[in-house]
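Q&A log
Question type: sequence-to-structure
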Amino acid sequence: MPGFEVFGEEERREVGEVLETGVLFRYGFDAQRKGRWKARSFESEFAARLGVGHCHLVSSGTASLYVALSACGVGAGDHVIISPFTFVATFEAILGVGAVPVFADMDETLCLSPAAARAAITERTKAVAPVHMCGAMARIEDLKALCGEKGLTLVEDTCQAVGGSYKGRALGTFGRAGCFSFDAVKTITCGEGGAVVTDDPLVSQRADQYADHGHDHVGSDRGADGHPILGTNYRISELNAAVGLAQLRKLDRILAAQRANKKVLRDALSAYRDVRFREVPDPAGDTATFLCFFLPAEEDARKAAKELGKAGLEGVSYWYDNNWHYLRRWEHLKNLKSAARLPQHLYDSVPDYNKVDLSLSDRIMGKTVCVQIKVGWTEKDLAARVAAIRTVFGN
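Response status: OK
Response body:
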């Protein structure tokens, strides 16, 4: 991670083919584009890889969340259960469609706890949106079963786990819709881009329409399109899709490198009694973008994260203090600070995020250290990183 580590002739060729036609827009201009449809090709290949019926590319992972929630009918006043450990886009999209983020504790998978999700369900709950954080899976079978039992919509935020699986089934395909990100630092990148996948034809149709101002894309002339629903602009460009298409074809190679490199660091850390590793429900399906481990106490984790960085192990994250990925530092959410006034029902119905009890998540996050795994590390690079681990934890 990330995919830009392996940019090469493949990406240049795909982009060059788009520039040769002069058609950067993903729709129309049929005669000019010489049969080159990069977004369509990506969608077809990604759907086939995941074993899912439908895929629609959008402009970002954030856009994929907006589109998926809207296509699944999540809207004003609905409650959506999520984990406090995610990227800010998860709750932004929920608020953006007029729904209410409801936080429930994570467990030692670093993802949403099924037991905590169950306890958070009320008569206003419409959906559960687990996030497969740091490249590995939530307890997705249990969450799927819970949603089936309670009649809730399951929307998977798979933005950090492209290529991941659980018991051989691709992450992002367990729910009614799955969301993916291909931004600049993801395992495969379009520069900016995302995708919504689903087996539900209605969700697919609504996603296709909503992401392009409600157009139904019937007929070859955009002027003849109908507008079955209100929508907005979350389109991806052919240039971004072209980069992503080349990257998608490298995904197996990227995953293999990540998994091999992660194993080297994990083996090095396994020698230390105080280190416990994050729980991964299916290790074979881990994308290996991060190596996450627990130390006995918060002070130990803080110290280790700081010293590992000083010793030369770059990409070390102490998420408990991070203001992009953990609720503790989300002051803008806690105080509902927005550039424009939010709908009144949100002010009236959201929980007081300053008072929500997530003490279990705090205890887990406080003792967690994560190390980003790079694709392009050489044997020399890996040896230097193992040396950094031994410097901090002892020989």
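Response note: The chain has 14 helices and 13 strands.
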